[in-house]
Every structure is written in C-alpha cells, then in structure tokens.
Amino acid sequence: MVAGMSHAATIHVGNASAIKEIKKGISVAKNGDTVIVQAGLYKEGNIIVDKQITLMASGQVILDGEKKFEPISVKSPFVTIKGFTIRGSGHSSMNDIAGVKIYNTKHVKIIDNILEDNFFGIYSQNSKHVEIYGNKIQAYGKAEQLIGNGIHGWKSDSLHIENNTIVGHRDGIYLEFVTHTKVLQNLSERNLRYGLHFMFSHDNSYIANTFRANGAGVAVMYTKHVHMEGNIFEENWGDAAYGLLLKDISDSQIINNQFDRNTAAIFMEGTNRVNIENNLFKGNGWGVKIQASCMDNTFNNNNFLQNTFDVATNGTMTLNYFANNYWDKYEGYDLNKDGVGDIPFRPVSLFSMMVERYPSAMLLFRSFMVTLFDRTEKLLPSLTPEGLKDDSPRMKSVKV
Amino acid sequence: MNKIIRYVFVDLLRNRTIIFYTILLLILSISVFSMEDNYEKGLVSLLNIVLFVVPLVSIVFSSIYLYNSAEFINLLVSQPLKRENIWLSIFVGLAGALCLSFLIGVGIPTIIYAYSTSGLTLIGCGLLLTLIFVAIAMWTSVLIRDKAKGIGLAILLWLYFGLLFDALVLFMLFQFSDYPIENIMVGLSMFNPIDICRILILLQLDLSAMMGYTGAIFREFFGNALGMGITLVVMFLWCIIPLWLSVRHFKKKDL
After folding, report:
1. How many distinct structural domains can be found in chain A?
2. Which of A292, A296, B15, B61 is deepest in the core (most CB within 10 A)?
3. What residues contact B219, with CB distance under 8 A and at least 6 apart?
C-alpha cells in the first residue's frame, strides 16, 4: 500500500489529452493514482469507479446521464470524487438510480460537486466512513413519487455530511439504518417532503443545519440517542407541516435550536426521555404539540415568543416536565425579584384544547367569548391538564 | 348638502364625548405599543380594543346624537331640502367625525409603531366598523322614536355582534362538529362584521397557525383575491343596507 502511494501517477483525461474518455482513464489507472478530467461535456453513460483513485475535475466538467444512466457508481474503497457537475441521471421505480452512488464500500469522499436534476443525488448503500462535503444538489421534482432524495444513506455507518445544499428533492437528507453519523451545516430547502428524514438511525448528531420551507418540515422516527444542536427550522408551514416531528424517539438531546414560523414547531408522539433545552420557539402556530403517548421529556430554559399556542396536548395526564422557560404570555409577578415568576404558568389554554378537538373553532380565535373562556380557565383550571405547568417561569427571556 | 355636513362635522368636533373618545384611543394605543416589546403583540392587544370599543362607541354615540338632534332634524326638514340629502349628510358628518377620531387615536400610533400590512389592515377594519355601526345606529334610531328604547336597542345590538353571536357560533360548532361545517362557518361569519374584521387580522397575525390544516379552509377563502373581494363587498353591504333602509324609512317618516 505504502509503495503504491509513492508511485502515484496523474492521468489526464480530455479532448486535449491522449485519453479522451473518463472510462478509459479509470481503466489505465492503478490504485492510488489521480485522474484529472479537463473541462467539457462527457456523455459516457455509467462510469464505474472500481479502483482506489482520486477523480478530479479541472474546470467545469459536466457528466450527463442523459436521463438513462447512473453517472457515477463507486464500487471501491478509498475513492475521492471532486468538483464535477453531474446531471440528468436515469429515473426508475425498480432501482434507486443516483447521481453518485456508493456501493458496499468504505472511505469514500464526495467533495464540492454540483448535482443537478438527478433522481437521487448522492446515495450511500451499505458503506462506511463516507464523507460528503460541500455539494450543491438540486432537482426539480414535481411529485413525491417521481423524485428521489438529495442525500440518501441506507445501512451505512460513520457518514460525515457537511456543508451541502439540497433543494427540490423528495427528502433533503434521508437516513435509514445509518449510525454514528454527523450531519453538519447543511441547508435543506424547498424539498417536496421532508428536509431531514431518518429512521432506525441511532447515535447520530445533527448540528447547525438549516431546514427551510420543506413540504412537511423534518420528520425523525424510531431512533435512540439523537443529538440535535444549533439547527434552524423555519417556514415549514402548510397543511401538514412540522418544524420537527418526533415519532418514537428516545434518550435524545434537542439543544439550542431555533424554530421560526412553523405550523407546529415540535410535534411529539411516542417520544420518551428527550431533553429539550435552550431552544427558541418564535412565531409558530403551535410551539410544542405533545401527544399523550409521550413521557419523561423535559423542557428547560426555552424561549416561547409570539406563538399562537405555546403548548397543546390531547390528553389529560401529564408525564412531561416544564421548568425555567420564558413564556411571553406569562402574566404573573415576581415579588422577591429573583427573576422567576411567583405563580406557575399553564401553557395549555382551554381554547387550544378546543381547537385540538374541533379544528374549525379556530375561526373564533381572539374573539371575546374565547378570551373570556381562557381567562376563567386560567383562574380555575378544570378542562386543561392540571399538572402541565411551569412552576418557575422566567420573567426575562433566556439569552441563547 | 355640504353645509349640513360641515355643520354636523364641526358640531361633533367640539363635542366633549368625541374629544374624550379620541384621547382615550390615543392613550390606549400608545401605552399598548410602548408596553409591548414587539409590535405584533401590541397589535393583538389593540385588536381587542378596536373590536370592542369602536363598535360600542360608534353605535351608542350615534344613537344618542341622533336623538338629541331630533329638533334640529325637524328644523331642517321644514326647509326646502330633500329629506334624502339631509339624512345622508348627517351620516357623512357623523361617520366622518368618528373616523377622524379613530384615525387620530389608533391610526397615527399604529402607523408610527407598527407600519405593516397587519397594522394597515387593523386601521382599515376599524374605519369600516365605524361606518357600519354608524349606519346601523341611523337605522335603529329612525325606527324607534323613544330615546331610551332606541339606545337600549343599540346596546343590545352591540352585545349581540360583540359577544352573543360568537357564543351561538361556538354552540353550533359543538352541536354539529360531526358534520363538515367549515364552509358553513365561513358563511356564518359573514353575518357579523366584527367577526369578519377579526378573521382578516387573524390571518395576518397568526399566519403560522392558520397555514396549518386547522386554518386551511379559512385561508383558502380569505386568502385569495376572490374571497377578499367577496369579504370587502360584504363589508360594504353591511354599511350600505342599513343606511339605505334608514333613508327609505326616513323619507316616509311622520316627524
């Protein structure tokens, strides 16, 4: 291996070079070589990278799949693909054809590519230690069933997905059976379904990503040990849009995130032992919707600003804990000036319970009758869950 | 006609109640805006004031003014003037004066503190509500000769539009919640100008919630140009129909 590295050669491919086809370039390359492709348009169908090489573009290299082929298939470990423009992969309802697909391998790097109008963008299948950096992935999907995901991971481990931009796919980032993965600083925007979607993907962290205006926000399911920090969920609104949908998530951390103008910022179902701390909920329809199937979740030091409803629930049992949050609807006082309100705050209003049961009651929101009901309920809670309250609401918002 | 309008208008501007109303609105809106750190929250508080106070003052004050100026109206009728013109001039004077105090009391602070679509919608709604409730007062006071009964009816009407109507809608909602009643709800809301205003402003302030499944049907109707057009037409009908009825009645009335 070491000897191979020292003899690494550079092979040039392009119109001006002796080798005109990328496939030819790869076939003459040996493990450890670098293949540099000169600018131009290449229509070579399916390029299979089955050697440990670095494939680099010099200038604008367009690999066109002509809507029939998979432009690049990586089938060898230690491959780097850098700087290509990859467009027009085939569509299929039988196979998941991608712009770049990585098959059963490890240590692959996909860096700074532009992927346009592909079925799937970058697809990692049964692979380990794949690094996906700085790619711009765009598609023009019209319907969910006609388009694939931007970055798709299946049965993989230790992926590193950083600094990518994904627009117009079905799911921006989709992970299934993917573990020990880091998803950092990506922008996932205007995808048809979810900005981020994962299932059975334990021990992953999602840090400083932005999920904006996706069809149904972000949905994460059936997973343990999720770490979400510093993400921005915004403008995920529409008929069924969640900033963050948590379904059967447990033992996880949701810290320092920002939820801005979503229909429901967090919707929780069957979610246990999740720690939700230091987040900002601003201008959402519902700050948090907790279904009765959730328990032992804690909400500490969050800011709730200008949400139509701060918290809504469909049950009467309270198994989740709220403490030290700032609620802009809090009207209590602080006599001993310790910064903590002296009377508890009940974030669930009677009207939000009513809307939960009769959605069209929303038409009466902010009318006097409703305000009157809410006031009476605040004084004498009878229909809203008795225990769902913040005993130590802050007087001033938390500095995040 | 212009002379009568000018007379009524100037007379009202000197009226103590109108001055008090203007100052009250001004103090309320300025304090609301300076208390809340965010203008949208200020608008929400102001919305309650506008939907509550503006109809009340418009309808009750107009009724009282009309009953008190019964002799003046009699005098005008004895002159060679068309009755229609007299009555419409009084309406223009009254509505103009109340709109002016609303503009000073709520309009100016809103423009200063919350110059936005939602703020402008609030001002527009307040002005329309003023017109509508003055028109309703014109009608009730021409229908009923007795001052006490007339003012009583005015207060009752205000109570109905402000509170009872919503209670009835809520009751209906609970009773018929098993049926697809969303469209009927939208239709029903057209029968109350206060509700129309509230929903219009709601669509601006609680956009995130209204964008969801819950608000979808309302957004669909009120959110597009056709729905907005229909809503505006309905609002103007609310103003024109009582006014027209009152003119018709006033023309034949035995004074």
Report:
1. 1
2. B61
3. B203, B210, B211
**Cα gap B194→B142, rounded to integer Å:** 23
Q: Which of A304, A294, A293, A300 is nearest to A348 (CA)?
A: A304
Torsion of CA B228, B232, B233, B238, to 10 degrees: 140
Alpha-carbon separation of residue B93 from A209, B54, B86, B144 (angstroms): 59, 17, 11, 21
Q: Give the mean model confidence (pLDDT) for residues A30-53.
A: 94
A19 domain residue, yes or no? yes
For A398, the 3-state DSSP assignment is coil
- pLDDT at position A3 is 45
Tokens linked to A113: 């590519």
Predicted local confidence at residue B240, as pLDDT:
95
A31 within a domain of the structure (yes/no): yes
Take residue B114 and report the two structure tokens written for it: 């919350």
Mutate which: A364, A376, A383, vs B, most B CBs within 10 A: A364
Q: What is the pTM of this model?
A: 0.87
Integer Cα distance of B56 and B164 in angstroms: 14
Q: Which residue has the higher pLDDT, A351 or A252?
A: A252
Instruction: Report the Cα A323 to chain-centroid distance in Å.
Output: 27
b/e for B223-245, b at 16 or more Cβ within 10 A? Answer: eeeeeeeebeeebeebbeebbeb
Instruction: Look at residue B110 and tell me whether its pLDDT is greater than 50.
Output: yes
SS3 content of chain A, % helix, strand, coil (to 5): 10, 45, 45
Would residue A64 count as lying in a domain?
Answer: yes
Give the pair of three-digit tokens for residue B163.
């509170």
Q: How many residues does chain A have?
A: 400
User: Roughly how many angstroms between the first and final C-alpha of chain A, as a whole number?
Assistant: 49
- Run of H or E residues at A99: strand A98-103
Who's near A93: CB < 8 A, 6+ residues apart?
none
Residue in chain B lying closest to A215 (CA): B212
Whole-angstrom distance, CA of residue A396 vs CA of residue A50: 60
What is the reported pLDDT for B49? Answer: 84
Containing structural domain, residue A94: 1-178
Chain B residues whose C-beta sits inside 8 Å of any chain A C-beta: 38, 40-41, 44, 47-48, 51-52, 162-163, 166-167, 169-170, 173-174, 177, 181-182, 185-186, 189, 195, 198-199, 202, 206-218
Q: Where are the alpha helices (DSSP H) in chain A?
A: 2-6, 22-28, 350-357, 368-379
How far A306 CA sits from the closest chain B CA (Å)? 7
Contact A19, A13 (CB under 8 A): yes
Per DSSP, the residues of B211-237 read TSHHHHHHHHHHHSHHHHHHHHHHHHH
Across chain A, which distance is largest between two alpha carbons, in Å?
Answer: 86
- Are the beta carbons of B208 and A243 closer than 8 angstroms? no
Residue A138's closest CA among A156, A122, A154, A153?
Answer: A122
The DSSP H or E segment spanning B151 is helix B147-159
Coil vs helix vs strand at B37: coil
Res A2 pLDDT > 50: no
Nearest CA to A323 among A298, A343, A306, A294? A298
**DSSP character at residue A223:** E
The token duo for B44 is 């929400």
User: How close, in Å, is residue B216 to chain A by CA atoms?
Assistant: 7
Average pLDDT, chain B: 89
Q: What pLDDT score does A190 carry?
A: 93
